[in-house]
């Protein structure tokens, strides 16, 4: 588990990505120490809303097809991550929630706990 | 103002029998022959290469002869060769040199390591954490990001995947007439549709090939050009170089940086899109040619697909793009690609492009993007 990327149990009990927010308003994920938009410091860590909307998606080559998407959140952030669904069940505009999963990576063999996006039931 | 006096290339493709230095030296010798200059005439040299080991340009120079000149090595990813060209032009423009050389080299398998060739990082190090965070976000090949750009564009503008495939088909047609191009077999829309998927929805022909190659350009001062009788003189009217300013906006950064860089180049040259006769573009993926065509002001946003479909970006069309086949078919060995674009532009502006000649071409725009947000644009014009 890599610290500082997400919280499995946020202030509302749900998993959340952790982004930085600059006093100028710019958000960034993973969190930054210095703002990319204004070079300012004094950035705060913010919980990203648990739910977001798929902005675009593709598949990652590997042992099995894995969907990777860019997800837009209501706090202004766009983040990239895995989607736990078959490509045929994924689409732009689809609502997804943030969850914590373990993905086995072929490169070093060691399982790594990460966030992933899960399609919200009943929506497509 | 810098004048291109000579260009040279080693055909892009596979050259297992040649080292990176051999490829560079081959290109330099071709450019020297083209310019009618001996190696000893070169006063300063810049070499662009991406991940090709330490000082590849210095090794090129050593093969040609130890003349003691300053040789700078530049790694700006795909835009390394373009960066070398810019520095050579600036050496001439500043009066520091009358004859400057830009060369680019690249070799498949020696240029793919993005980690500096040091292997997997040790647990507990900053590099290890950086790598894990990248893996958590979904590791993708470069095609993955462009696949998402393609899919988003299809959603926003209602474009079809075939419209993007037409860029690959068009650029292959151009490459079939270019002896320096890596991919010269005929390519149909059916071929693009039926090829293996790299990153959904992109199949192999939507993505440029990797390969080996070298390319070089010699730039000289006005005074030197008169002395050599360079005719026609190809002038470098603009050299613009920018990195991104758009923070946190996925998918739009390369097109946004291209818009800003091209605007700067137009201002330097005192020209606009209506003055440009042909364009060499960073078409590593089919969606890019369409996006950047709009960024450069040749089409309104959302109209790029229709422009390709109507043949406007083909040789014989309104504004031919990627006349040598582009990255998609001429090939993209990273380091030399920007200089292959200069090579093609110079050949076209001289009227020496044979069956792929753009009739009456006088002004050409050259555009490269490098990973991490590097963008370079040059405008060349026949005097």
Q: What's the order of the H and E elements of chain B?
A: EHEHEHEHHHHEEEHEHEHHHHEE
Q: Figure out the total of helices of chain B.
A: 13
Report the portion of residues of chain B in β strands. Answer: 15-25%
Strand order of the largest sheet of chain A: 7-6-5-8-9
Estimated radius of gyration of chain A: 15 Å
Sheet with the most strands, sense and barrel status of chain B: 9 strands, mixed
Work out the number of β strands of chain A: 9
Please tell me how large the radius of gyration of chain B is: 20 Å
Main β sheet profile of chain A: 5 strands, antiparallel
Summed over residues and divided by their number, the pLDDT of chain B gives a mean of 94
Shape of chain A: globular
Number of helices, counting only DSSP H or I runs of 4 residues or more of chain A: 0
Strand percentage of chain A lies at: over 45%
Strand order within the widest sheet of chain B? 3-2-4-7-1-8-11-10-9
Low-confidence stretches of chain B: 110-116
N/C terminus separation of chain B? 11 Å
Structural classification of chain A: mainly beta
Helix content of chain A: under 10%
Low-confidence segments of chain A, given as residue ranges, are none
In short:
The complex is a heterodimer of chains A (124) and B (383). Chain A is mainly β and 124 residues long. Chain A is 0% helix and 45% strand.
Any chance you could write out the topology, listing elements then pairs?
The complex is a heterodimer of chains A (124) and B (383).
Chain A: E1 6-7, E2 16-21, E3 27-28, E4 44-47, E5 51-60, E6 66-72, E7 78-83, E8 95-104, E9 111-119
Chain B: E1 3-13, H1 20-35, E2 44-48, H2 56-64, E3 71-74, H3 80-93, E4 99-106, H4 126-136, H5 142-157, H6 161-175, H7 189-194, E5 197-199, E6 202-203, E7 212-220, H8 222-228, E8 234-242, H9 253-269, E9 278-280, H10 286-295, H11 304-309, H12 326-329, H13 337-350, E10 363-370, E11 374-382
Parallel strand pairs in B: 2-3, 2-4, 9-10
Antiparallel strand pairs in B: 1-7, 1-8, 4-7, 5-6, 8-11, 10-11
Helix pairs in contact in B: 1-2, 3-13, 6-10, 9-10
